[in-house]
Write a structure and sequence with these properties.
alpha/beta, Rossmann fold, 2 domains, two-stranded antiparallel ribbon, 10 strands, globular
């Protein structure tokens, strides 16, 4: 089997006029958005060729470190090398890079726009990074119809749509996929009308009140949702879109890493949802159906207040300082009111019970 780097190596010399843009191309550009372009690109509409971007990036960062890493965020810049190896992407230009983390607003958003040599534009929204702010915004979606990041994504897409007049594709991985769908649904209609496809690569869904809006209904036929078999992030909330389930070289939560998704020629290796995958989906949906918005908000704020009590801003820092982090979290738990402690315990118990009940039902169906 092959991954997206193999795709770039084997199919990267096939131009778009011979083999039009496909879902794998979408994943390449969605993963590229994880690259830290700070100091290399700006938030202006100045266009920079990828050969220049590649050169500048690896003058500032270690290529060896990226090649040795198993972390898809660290490996993302290597996509630039792959793009330069063939005609498909070598003339692509990148513009309008934004990267904002605002703890006060609870927002993490990063995006970049890719100008392809077939005249189309791909707007790529980055998924969740390792920041606590970014992950908290993911969970905020469970009780907020609109987050600051989503609203910012709409503004970004409107700006790009006003600047460039060609056909648009919008996509992202993880939370970036959610932003891509949300921005496409609620951007100006003259921009929405130019959108060819919207790709959400294992991205969370939406609350019912979002899906009932006219903008969402209009964009829905253009949305392509791609998830691995044991998707967890992509099964959060719902979307009214039938998922394309792809094979992965990993198992469990590690399948969220889109660099493990399997590719054959110019398409994903598609599979049927497994019993475990269906169980995860049902467990999450059952759990959310039992927890009201007020409880969800309390749970999210309480859990992340414990993380923030460590004094660290990313999960990476917490991992490096694991013992100190655990000590501070345990101390903070003791500082919570008895009511808050009980609320969190009750919600965790609900999750366990939902998972157990879903497993029993699945087992019954199989017998």
């Amino acid at each position: 089997m092959a991954d997206l780097f193999d795709y770039l190596k084997w199919r990267g010399d096939v131009p778009f006029e011979t083999d039009p843009f496909n879902a794998v191309d979408n994943l390449v550009l969605a993963e590229l958005a994880y690259t830290d372009f700070d100091g290399i690109l700006s938030d202006s509409f100045r266009q920079t060729g990828i050969s220049t971007v590649d050169k500048r990036y690896f003058e500032m960062h270690s290529r060896d470190e990226a090649m040795k890493s198993s972390n898809h965020i660290v490996r993302a810049p290597l996509i630039l090398d792959g793009m330069l190896s063939g005609r498909r992407f070598c003339d692509m230009k990148i513009t309008k890079y934004v990267n904002v983390i605002n703890a006060y607003k609870g927002m993490q958003i990063s995006a970049v726009t890719c100008l392809l040599n077939d005249g189309s534009i791909y707007v790529s929204f980055r998924g969740t990074d390792s920041s606590l702010v970014g992950w908290k915004e993911d969970f905020n979606m469970s009780y907020l119809p609109d987050t600051e990041g989503q609203l910012s994504a709409v503004r970004y897409l409107n700006e790009v749509g006003a600047k460039f007049k060609g056909p648009l594709r919008v996509g992202g991985h993880s939370k970036g996929g959610n932003f891509a769908v949300y921005a496409s649904a609620f951007c100006r209609q003259e921009v929405q009308d130019r959108i060819l496809k919207v790709y959400t690569n294992d991205g969370p869904g939406f609350r019912d009140e979002v899906m009932s809006r006219e903008g969402y209904k209009r964009i829905l036929p253009k949305v392509i949702s791609i998830v691995p078999d044991t998707s967890i992030i992509g099964m959060l909330l719902t979307s009214k879109v039938k998922h394309i389930v792809v094979d992965s070289s990993e198992k469990g939560i590690n399948q969220h890493d889109a660099m493990t998704w399997q590719i054959e020629r110019n398409r994903f290796v598609v599979t049927e949802p497994s019993a475990i995958g269906l169980l995860i989906k049902k467990s999450q949906q059952d759990w959310l159906s039992k927890i009201d918005d007020e409880s969800r908000e309390l749970f999210v704020n309480t859990v992340f207040s414990l993380f923030e009590a460590t004094g660290m801003s990313t999960f990476g820092e917490m991992k490096v300082n694991m013992f100190k982090s655990i000590e501070r979290i345990l101390s903070s738990i003791n500082d919570l009111s008895k009511e808050s402690q009980q609320e969190v315990k009750d919600i965790i118990v609900e999750l366990i019970q939902s998972s157990t009940q879903a497993a029993k039902e699945k087992l019954t169906d199989m017998l």
